Amino acid sequence: MRIALAAAVAAAACTPVVNAENPSPSLAFLGDWDCGVAIFTFTADTYSPGAGAEPLPILSVESRSVGNYIVTFPDDYSIALYDVTTAGMVWSSPSTGDTFDCVRVTA
């Protein structure tokens, strides 16, 4: 029983959740991304899915593993960001089934 509890605690430690109570100093996906259909912008607090779009407040960010995140917004909407590097990532919406290969926009 103690081993199972220790394993559960260790697993929970591997999936930190970033939110207002637990802010993160750095998230790899912050910035502007060209995802082919629009430039998506992530700040520490918001996500904008393109020019003229109303930014969505980010409620939480769950790190699944290095470079893989689940970002949650109001109304139970979420997106997955996979294979995030300094140059690229995969954006995916479980609710729509859309998936985009994105490249970081550099100045």
Percent helix among the residues? Answer: 10-25%
* Rg measurement, Å: 15 Å
Distance between the termini: 54 Å
Q: How many distinct helices?
A: 1
Report the order of strands and helices: HEEEEEEEEEE
Neighbour order of strands in the largest sheet: 1-6-7-8-9-10-2-3-4-5
Oligomer: single chain
**Roughly what fraction of the amino acids lie in strands?**
35-45%
Overall average pLDDT? 82
Q: How many individual β-strands?
A: 10
Question: Would you identify the regions where 5 or more consecutive residues have pLDDT less than 50?
Answer: 1-23
Main pleated sheet:
10 strands, antiparallel
The tally of domains stands at: 1
Helix/strand-derived category reads mainly beta
Which term fits the overall shape?
globular
Summarize the structure.
By secondary structure, the protein is mainly β. It is 11% helix and 39% strand.
Defining key terms:
107 residues; mainly beta
Provide the fold topology.
Elements: H1 2-13, E1 17-18, E2 31-34, E3 39-42, E4 46-48, E5 56-57, E6 60-65, E7 68-72, E8 78-82, E9 88-92, E10 99-104
Antiparallel strand pairs: 1-6, 2-3, 2-10, 3-4, 4-5, 6-7, 7-8, 8-9, 9-10
Description:
This protein is mainly β and 107 residues long. The chain has one domain (16-104). It is 11% helix and 39% strand. The protein is globular and about 35 Å long.
